[in-house]
Protein backbone atom coordinates (compact mmCIF):
# COMPACT_ATOMS: atom_id res chain seq x y z
CA UNK A 1 0.00 0.00 0.00
CA UNK A 2 1.15 3.54 -0.65
CA UNK A 3 1.44 5.76 2.39
CA UNK A 4 0.46 9.43 2.62
CA UNK A 5 3.35 11.50 3.91
CA UNK A 6 3.21 14.08 6.72
CA UNK A 7 5.88 16.11 8.50
CA UNK A 8 6.43 18.16 11.61
CA UNK A 9 8.92 20.96 10.99
CA UNK A 10 10.71 23.17 13.48
CA UNK A 11 14.10 24.12 14.91
CA UNK A 12 14.97 22.35 17.16
CA UNK A 13 12.81 19.34 16.30
CA UNK A 14 14.54 16.24 17.71
CA UNK A 15 12.37 16.21 20.85
CA UNK A 16 9.06 16.59 19.02
CA UNK A 17 6.49 14.04 20.13
CA UNK A 18 4.34 14.58 17.04
CA UNK A 19 5.74 11.61 15.03
CA UNK A 20 5.01 9.31 17.96
CA UNK A 21 1.51 10.73 18.49
CA UNK A 22 0.47 10.64 14.83
CA UNK A 23 1.89 7.16 14.35
CA UNK A 24 -0.22 6.00 17.32
CA UNK A 25 -3.30 7.71 15.83
CA UNK A 26 -2.67 6.05 12.46
CA UNK A 27 -2.34 2.58 14.02
CA UNK A 28 -5.49 3.08 16.06
CA UNK A 29 -7.61 4.34 13.11
CA UNK A 30 -5.89 2.18 10.44
CA UNK A 31 -4.91 5.15 8.34
CA UNK A 32 -2.04 4.55 5.91
CA UNK A 33 0.25 7.42 6.78
CA UNK A 34 3.94 8.00 7.35
CA UNK A 35 4.82 10.91 9.66
CA UNK A 36 8.31 12.18 10.45
CA UNK A 37 10.17 15.18 11.83
CA UNK A 38 12.24 17.53 9.69
CA UNK A 39 14.70 20.14 10.94
CA UNK A 40 14.59 23.34 8.89
CA UNK A 41 17.29 25.95 9.21
CA UNK A 42 16.23 29.41 10.31
CA UNK A 43 17.67 31.33 7.35
CA UNK A 44 15.22 33.50 5.44
CA UNK A 45 13.15 31.58 2.90
CA UNK A 46 14.22 28.13 4.13
CA UNK A 47 10.75 27.36 5.47
CA UNK A 48 8.94 28.11 2.17
CA UNK A 49 11.56 26.20 0.18
CA UNK A 50 11.19 23.11 2.38
CA UNK A 51 7.38 23.15 2.31
CA UNK A 52 7.27 23.67 -1.47
CA UNK A 53 9.69 20.77 -2.00
CA UNK A 54 7.58 18.54 0.27
CA UNK A 55 4.41 19.47 -1.64
CA UNK A 56 6.11 18.86 -5.01
CA UNK A 57 7.03 15.36 -3.79
CA UNK A 58 3.39 14.58 -2.99
CA UNK A 59 3.44 15.40 0.74
CA UNK A 60 -0.05 15.72 2.20
CA UNK A 61 0.34 17.94 5.24
CA UNK A 62 2.60 19.42 7.92
CA UNK A 63 2.61 20.42 11.53
CA UNK A 64 4.66 23.49 12.29
CA UNK A 65 6.34 24.32 15.56
CA UNK A 66 8.71 26.93 17.03
CA UNK A 67 10.01 29.18 15.44
CA UNK A 68 8.07 28.80 12.16
CA UNK A 69 4.41 29.29 13.14
CA UNK A 70 4.38 32.90 11.88
CA UNK A 71 6.26 31.95 8.71
CA UNK A 72 3.63 29.26 8.14
CA UNK A 73 0.91 31.86 8.60
CA UNK A 74 2.51 33.99 5.89
CA UNK A 75 3.13 31.01 3.63
CA UNK A 76 -0.37 29.54 3.35
CA UNK A 77 -2.82 30.67 0.71
CA UNK A 78 -5.94 30.19 2.88
CA UNK A 79 -6.26 30.69 6.67
CA UNK A 80 -8.97 29.54 9.08
CA UNK A 81 -10.57 32.13 11.37
CA UNK A 82 -8.75 30.75 14.41
CA UNK A 83 -5.43 30.88 12.55
CA UNK A 84 -6.11 34.50 11.57
CA UNK A 85 -6.74 35.45 15.21
CA UNK A 86 -3.78 33.45 16.49
CA UNK A 87 -1.46 35.08 13.93
CA UNK A 88 0.15 31.65 13.72
CA UNK A 89 -0.36 28.38 11.84
CA UNK A 90 0.52 24.96 13.27
CA UNK A 91 -1.25 22.80 10.67
CA UNK A 92 -0.85 22.98 6.90
CA UNK A 93 -2.67 20.95 4.26
CA UNK A 94 -3.23 21.15 0.51
CA UNK A 95 -6.59 21.23 -1.25
CA UNK A 96 -7.51 19.49 -4.51
CA UNK A 97 -6.13 22.40 -6.54
CA UNK A 98 -2.82 22.03 -4.70
CA UNK A 99 -3.34 25.30 -2.79
CA UNK A 100 -2.12 25.41 0.79
CA UNK A 101 -4.41 26.04 3.77
CA UNK A 102 -3.38 26.81 7.35
CA UNK A 103 -5.11 26.28 10.67
CA UNK A 104 -4.18 26.59 14.33
CA UNK A 105 -5.26 23.71 16.57
CA UNK A 106 -3.34 24.65 19.76
CA UNK A 107 -6.23 26.51 21.38
CA UNK A 108 -8.84 23.91 20.64
CA UNK A 109 -6.38 21.35 22.06
CA UNK A 110 -6.26 23.19 25.39
CA UNK A 111 -10.02 23.73 25.52
CA UNK A 112 -10.74 20.04 24.73
CA UNK A 113 -8.30 18.86 27.37
CA UNK A 114 -9.92 21.09 29.98
CA UNK A 115 -13.55 20.60 29.04
CA UNK A 116 -13.63 16.96 27.87
CA UNK A 117 -10.70 15.22 29.56
CA UNK A 118 -10.72 17.16 32.86
CA UNK A 119 -14.46 17.88 32.83
CA UNK A 120 -14.08 21.60 33.59
CA UNK A 121 -16.39 23.99 31.74
CA UNK A 122 -14.99 27.47 31.00
CA UNK A 123 -18.40 29.06 30.52
CA UNK A 124 -19.16 31.82 33.02
CA UNK A 125 -15.78 31.38 34.72
CA UNK A 126 -13.23 34.03 35.70
CA UNK A 127 -10.10 32.96 33.82
CA UNK A 128 -6.54 34.15 34.38
CA UNK A 129 -3.99 33.50 31.64
CA UNK A 130 -0.32 33.85 32.59
CA UNK A 131 2.04 34.97 29.83
CA UNK A 132 1.57 36.80 26.56
CA UNK A 133 3.71 34.88 24.08
CA UNK A 134 2.72 32.71 21.14
CA UNK A 135 1.14 30.00 23.32
CA UNK A 136 -1.31 32.39 24.99
CA UNK A 137 -2.12 34.19 21.73
CA UNK A 138 -2.87 30.82 20.14
CA UNK A 139 -5.40 29.80 22.79
CA UNK A 140 -7.29 33.09 23.19
CA UNK A 141 -9.91 32.67 20.49
CA UNK A 142 -11.05 29.14 21.50
CA UNK A 143 -11.09 30.13 25.19
CA UNK A 144 -13.21 33.21 24.51
CA UNK A 145 -15.53 31.11 22.34
CA UNK A 146 -16.45 29.19 25.54
CA UNK A 147 -17.93 32.44 26.92
CA UNK A 148 -16.04 32.91 30.20
CA UNK A 149 -17.31 35.66 32.53
CA UNK A 150 -13.93 37.36 32.22
CA UNK A 151 -10.45 36.68 30.96
CA UNK A 152 -7.39 38.48 32.32
CA UNK A 153 -3.95 38.18 30.73
CA UNK A 154 -1.11 38.81 33.22
CA UNK A 155 2.41 39.30 31.95
CA UNK A 156 5.71 40.72 33.24
CA UNK A 157 5.86 42.91 30.15
CA UNK A 158 2.46 44.62 30.24
CA UNK A 159 2.63 45.94 26.66
CA UNK A 160 2.68 42.41 25.23
CA UNK A 161 -0.52 41.52 27.10
CA UNK A 162 -2.12 44.78 25.95
CA UNK A 163 -1.37 43.95 22.32
CA UNK A 164 -3.18 40.62 22.70
CA UNK A 165 -6.18 42.33 24.28
CA UNK A 166 -6.31 44.84 21.43
CA UNK A 167 -6.77 41.95 18.97
CA UNK A 168 -10.10 41.07 20.60
CA UNK A 169 -11.14 44.20 22.49
CA UNK A 170 -14.21 45.05 20.50
CA UNK A 171 -16.23 41.98 21.54
CA UNK A 172 -14.69 40.27 24.55
CA UNK A 173 -14.48 40.58 28.37
CA UNK A 174 -10.71 40.61 28.08
CA UNK A 175 -8.15 42.71 29.99
CA UNK A 176 -4.41 42.91 30.61
CA UNK A 177 -2.41 43.51 33.80
CA UNK A 178 0.92 42.98 35.53
CA UNK A 179 1.41 40.37 38.27
CA UNK A 180 1.33 43.06 40.99
CA UNK A 181 -2.16 44.11 39.93
CA UNK A 182 -3.50 40.59 40.65
CA UNK A 183 -3.33 41.11 44.43
CA UNK A 184 -6.79 41.04 46.00
CA UNK A 185 -8.46 39.33 43.00
CA UNK A 186 -9.62 35.73 42.66
CA UNK A 187 -9.95 33.50 39.60
CA UNK A 188 -11.83 30.25 39.00
CA UNK A 189 -9.29 28.96 36.46
CA UNK A 190 -5.60 29.89 36.16
CA UNK A 191 -3.74 28.75 33.03
CA UNK A 192 0.04 29.00 32.90
CA UNK A 193 1.12 29.83 29.36
CA UNK A 194 4.51 31.28 30.35
CA UNK A 195 7.78 29.49 29.72
CA UNK A 196 8.73 29.94 33.42
CA UNK A 197 8.37 26.20 34.09
CA UNK A 198 11.04 25.50 31.47
CA UNK A 199 13.52 27.30 33.74
CA UNK A 200 12.09 25.70 36.89
CA UNK A 201 10.54 29.05 37.87
CA UNK A 202 7.13 30.18 39.04
CA UNK A 203 5.50 33.39 37.75
CA UNK A 204 5.32 35.93 40.63
CA UNK A 205 1.75 35.18 41.73
CA UNK A 206 0.26 36.77 44.86
CA UNK A 207 -1.31 34.52 47.51
CA UNK A 208 -5.08 34.10 47.80
CA UNK A 209 -5.91 34.34 44.10
CA UNK A 210 -7.31 30.80 44.09
CA UNK A 211 -10.78 30.52 45.69
CA UNK A 212 -10.75 27.95 48.51
CA UNK A 213 -11.60 24.38 47.40
CA UNK A 214 -12.92 25.28 43.94
CA UNK A 215 -10.01 26.77 42.04
CA UNK A 216 -8.66 25.08 38.90
CA UNK A 217 -5.15 25.34 37.48
CA UNK A 218 -3.54 24.17 34.25
CA UNK A 219 0.09 24.30 33.13
CA UNK A 220 0.58 24.12 29.35
CA UNK A 221 4.06 22.74 29.95
CA UNK A 222 4.58 18.99 30.27
CA UNK A 223 7.36 17.26 32.14
CA UNK A 224 8.07 13.96 33.87
CA UNK A 225 7.82 15.64 37.27
CA UNK A 226 5.48 18.31 38.62
CA UNK A 227 6.26 21.82 37.40
CA UNK A 228 6.71 24.61 39.99
CA UNK A 229 3.31 25.96 38.89
CA UNK A 230 1.53 22.63 39.40
CA UNK A 231 3.27 22.29 42.78
CA UNK A 232 2.15 25.80 43.76
CA UNK A 233 -1.42 25.11 42.60
CA UNK A 234 -1.72 21.90 44.63
CA UNK A 235 -0.24 23.57 47.72
CA UNK A 236 -2.92 26.26 47.39
CA UNK A 237 -5.74 23.70 47.25
CA UNK A 238 -6.49 23.91 43.53
CA UNK A 239 -7.69 21.07 41.32
CA UNK A 240 -4.97 20.71 38.75
CA UNK A 241 -4.36 18.72 35.57
CA UNK A 242 -1.10 16.81 35.94
CA UNK A 243 0.49 18.55 32.94
CA UNK A 244 -0.11 19.92 29.45
CA UNK A 245 0.27 16.57 27.71
CA UNK A 246 -3.46 16.44 27.06
CA UNK A 247 -3.30 19.75 25.20
CA UNK A 248 -0.44 18.44 23.06
CA UNK A 249 -2.28 15.25 22.10
CA UNK A 250 -5.60 17.05 21.56
CA UNK A 251 -4.06 19.61 19.18
CA UNK A 252 -2.49 16.72 17.27
CA UNK A 253 -5.86 14.93 17.14
CA UNK A 254 -7.46 18.02 15.64
CA UNK A 255 -4.74 18.22 12.96
CA UNK A 256 -5.19 14.51 12.23
CA UNK A 257 -8.94 15.10 11.87
CA UNK A 258 -8.41 18.04 9.50
CA UNK A 259 -6.17 15.91 7.27
CA UNK A 260 -7.86 12.53 7.47
CA UNK A 261 -11.48 13.24 8.44
CA UNK A 262 -11.18 10.72 11.29
CA UNK A 263 -11.08 11.50 15.03
CA UNK A 264 -8.63 9.30 16.95
CA UNK A 265 -9.17 8.43 20.62
CA UNK A 266 -6.81 10.62 22.60
CA UNK A 267 -6.91 9.08 26.07
CA UNK A 268 -4.80 5.97 25.33
CA UNK A 269 -2.21 8.13 23.55
CA UNK A 270 -2.01 10.61 26.46
CA UNK A 271 -1.50 7.69 28.86
CA UNK A 272 1.13 6.09 26.61
CA UNK A 273 3.10 9.36 26.34
CA UNK A 274 2.90 9.97 30.08
CA UNK A 275 4.26 6.49 30.69
CA UNK A 276 7.15 7.07 28.26
CA UNK A 277 7.92 10.44 29.89
CA UNK A 278 7.94 8.92 33.36
CA UNK A 279 10.20 6.08 32.21
CA UNK A 280 12.51 8.71 30.60
CA UNK A 281 12.08 6.96 27.22
CA UNK A 282 11.21 10.43 25.89
CA UNK A 283 11.93 13.89 27.32
P1 LIG B 1 7.20 32.75 24.38
O1 LIG B 1 8.67 32.77 24.46
O2 LIG B 1 6.50 33.30 23.16
O3 LIG B 1 6.58 33.54 25.64
C1 LIG B 1 7.04 33.28 26.92
C2 LIG B 1 6.16 33.99 27.94
O4 LIG B 1 6.56 33.54 29.24
C3 LIG B 1 6.27 35.50 27.94
O5 LIG B 1 5.00 36.05 28.18
C4 LIG B 1 7.23 35.76 29.11
O6 LIG B 1 7.03 37.02 29.74
C5 LIG B 1 6.83 34.67 30.06
N1 LIG B 1 7.86 34.29 31.04
C6 LIG B 1 9.04 33.65 30.81
N2 LIG B 1 9.69 33.41 31.96
C7 LIG B 1 8.91 33.89 32.96
C8 LIG B 1 9.04 33.94 34.39
N3 LIG B 1 10.11 33.43 35.02
N4 LIG B 1 8.02 34.52 35.08
C9 LIG B 1 6.93 35.03 34.46
N5 LIG B 1 6.77 35.02 33.13
C10 LIG B 1 7.73 34.45 32.38
O7 LIG B 1 6.78 31.22 24.62
P2 LIG B 1 5.48 30.46 24.09
O8 LIG B 1 4.31 31.33 24.34
O9 LIG B 1 5.70 29.95 22.73
O10 LIG B 1 5.42 29.16 25.03
C11 LIG B 1 5.18 29.22 26.43
C12 LIG B 1 5.04 27.84 27.02
O11 LIG B 1 3.86 27.20 26.56
C13 LIG B 1 6.18 26.88 26.64
O12 LIG B 1 7.00 26.73 27.76
C14 LIG B 1 5.53 25.54 26.33
O13 LIG B 1 5.88 24.61 27.32
C15 LIG B 1 4.05 25.80 26.46
N6 LIG B 1 3.29 25.27 25.30
C16 LIG B 1 2.64 24.07 25.46
C17 LIG B 1 1.89 23.53 24.43
C18 LIG B 1 1.20 22.21 24.63
O14 LIG B 1 0.72 21.64 23.64
N7 LIG B 1 1.09 21.70 25.82
C19 LIG B 1 1.76 24.24 23.14
C20 LIG B 1 2.47 25.51 23.08
C21 LIG B 1 3.21 25.96 24.14
P3 LIG B 1 7.66 38.40 29.15
O15 LIG B 1 6.85 38.74 27.94
O16 LIG B 1 7.49 39.38 30.24
O17 LIG B 1 9.09 38.08 28.83
Automatic annotation (TrEMBL):
Its EC number is 1.1.1.25. It is an enzyme of class 1 (oxidoreductase). InterPro entries: Aminoacid_DH-like_N_sf, NAD(P)-bd_dom_sf, SDH_C, SDHF4, Shikimate_DH, Shikimate_DH-bd_N, Shikimate_DH_fam, Shikm_DH/Glu-tRNA_Rdtase. Belongs to the SDHAF4 family. The keyword Oxidoreductase applies. Residues 244-274 form the SDH C-terminal domain. The active site is at residue 69. SUPFAM superfamilies: Aminoacid dehydrogenase-like, N-terminal domain, NAD(P)-binding Rossmann-fold domains. The gene is aroE. GO terms for biological process: amino acid biosynthetic process; aromatic amino acid family biosynthetic process; chorismate biosynthetic process; shikimate metabolic process. The lineage of its organism: Bacteria, Pseudomonadati, Pseudomonadota, Gammaproteobacteria, Thiotrichales. NADP(+) binds at residues 81, 131-135, 155-160, 220, 244. It catalyses: shikimate + NADP(+) = 3-dehydroshikimate + NADPH + H(+). Homodimer. This is Shikimate dehydrogenase (NADP(+)). The keyword NADP applies. It comes from Beggiatoa leptomitoformis.
